[in-house]
Amino acid sequence: MEEDLRRLSQGLDTLNGLVAGLEDRLRVSLREDTTKMITTLLGSPRRPDSTVGFGVIPEGGPETLDGGEGFPVLGELVGRVTEVKDELRVKSNMLDEIHGMVMGHDGQLKRLLEADTARPVLTGGTQSLLEELLDARLAGVKAEILDGFERRLSGLENHCDERIGQVQQQCEKEHLNGQEQMQLSLDGRETGLRKELGDLQAQIQGLTLTDNCCGQVNSLSQRVLLLEESVKGLTESQRQLQVTLTEQTHHMETQLDARLLDIEGRLNTSDRGKGGLEGFDGHGAGTLDGFKTLLDDKLKNLEERLFVAVEELSNATAPALLEGHVVPALETEIDNVRRRVEADLDGLQKQLTDLELLCTSACSPAPNPEVELIQTEMEECKDVEKKVSSRLDTHSDMLDHLNRTLQGLLTQLAQEDQEGSLQGEITLLKINVNSVNRTLKGLRDSVHFFAREIGHANSTWEEREHRLATQVKGITELVGRQSNLLGAGERRLIQMKAELQSLRRRLAGEIQGCRSTALGVQQEVMGVESRVSQVEGRCGSLSELADELERIRSELESHSDTYLAQINNTLASHGQQLSQLKEGLQECANKTDPDSHRGDQ
């Protein structure tokens, strides 16, 4: 406040000096201008009008006849008057601006004096009011910070929900496309098998049969029907596996969505168990990822072994089948696969038990819903393993049944060969074996296709799980950063409160000092008002002088108009006289020309 008052007083002093200087310069310039105008008006002699007769011609050449140099003082006087008028206008504008500035400073000083006189002395009640005001302002700032934090969190939640919805829609779309492709492939394989079986039946019916082979043909047709039923059973089992796979995927999606919602709720409600939850999630996710990769590797190994066995069976020729060398190898391979599957399942069971012990030991202080969810997922994984093992057992049983039927056919063919059966029956058996090979090739292709589809589904599921894990990790990191920012904001609020209290104490001291300086300011303001009144009086005298100058200008303009009219009249008379002189000279010249011609003659 003291510095502001000091600056105002300095500004008033400078304004007073400027006003005084302007008054002096205006006074001097006006005196000089008036003296010059009066001397020019009184000192310039008026020239008489030029009277031109027949023999009188004004002095000077033709250039002086336009009146440009007849009254040289009049043009200078008019220009000088306009210059003085412009200067007076500019200086009057400057005086108006200075007057406005002085009035503005006067109003500011009056407001300061009124505020100083109306301000009460700080007491205990006013201090309490100031404290309440500061507390209210701090509470408002804190509420604004918290509102901004909540808005950012809500925006992040909406963004996460949108991303999760997009991922779910993409997974559902890919799953539906995979189901449609699998259904189309199954339908195509089934129609192909039915067509091949119909062709076989047509070939069997078209063959010429003898009396000895009627019973054998009937038995072969029954065996073909049994093979067709076994193929139907395989297709039904594949469809059931597809249905169970879809159910498991939907179930896992719902569980994952529930877990994500639970994690979001826990993050929004509490911040205390964040570290333990992150540690547990990271450890559990790592173990589950390892378990999934191990299970995928084992399933891939089993599929490769099954494909090798089917290829060996399909690549085998008819004599080898007749000799019975490939089918026992297939049985031994199936036994080896079964033993390996049992060993792998035992190892997986051990890993699951270790995982359960690890989860129970690491998550004992953690809340129960997460542990229960993980246990339910583990139980569901066990159920899926049991279902897969049961399906493998059913497939192995069906393969055993097929081996037994083929073995029976081979033994029957051997007996018929020993008894001298006909060549047509052997060809018929070859045709049947070739058809079985084709059906097995079709089954191998379908198994390959299912394996690719399952691998694609597993890869998409792993990508989705990894994406969701990264999103959850980003959300937790963002929440941590926001909590740190909130703590920094609270510390800043405490610091601002301390600064405001110190500022309040400083203001109390400065207000006490302002009271002492207010009286001096009031005296200076009174002096400024007196000076302003003096300036206004002088400005009134300047306005009177401007009126007098305007009157002088009007008189000069009237004189100049009369002078210009006289000059125009004299110029017109001179022009007429010149024209008359030219005509006289022309006549004289015409008269002198004949006289000169006569003298010459």
Short description:
With 601 residues, the protein is mainly α. Helices cover 90% and strands 0% of the residues.
Q: Would you mind describing this structure in some detail?
A:
By secondary structure, the protein is mainly alpha-helical. The chain has a domain at 137-498. 90% of the residues lie in helices and 0% in strands. It contains 9 helices and no strands. The protein is elongated and about 175 Å long.
Q: What's the arrangement of secondary structure elements?
A:
Layout: H1 2-43, H2 72-118, H3 124-206, H4 214-269, H5 274-315, H6 318-323, H7 326-362, H8 368-418, H9 423-600
Number of strands: 0
Mean pLDDT: 65
Q: H/E order of the elements?
A: HHHHHHHHH
N/C terminus separation: 117 Å
Q: What share of residues are in beta strands?
A: under 5%
Query: Could you name the ranges where pLDDT drops below 50 across 5 or more consecutive residues?
Result: 44-73, 270-288, 316-330, 362-367
Main pleated sheet: none
Structural class: mainly alpha
Please tell me what the overall shape is: elongated
Number of helices: 9
Percent range for helical residues? Answer: over 70%
Rg calc: 60 Å
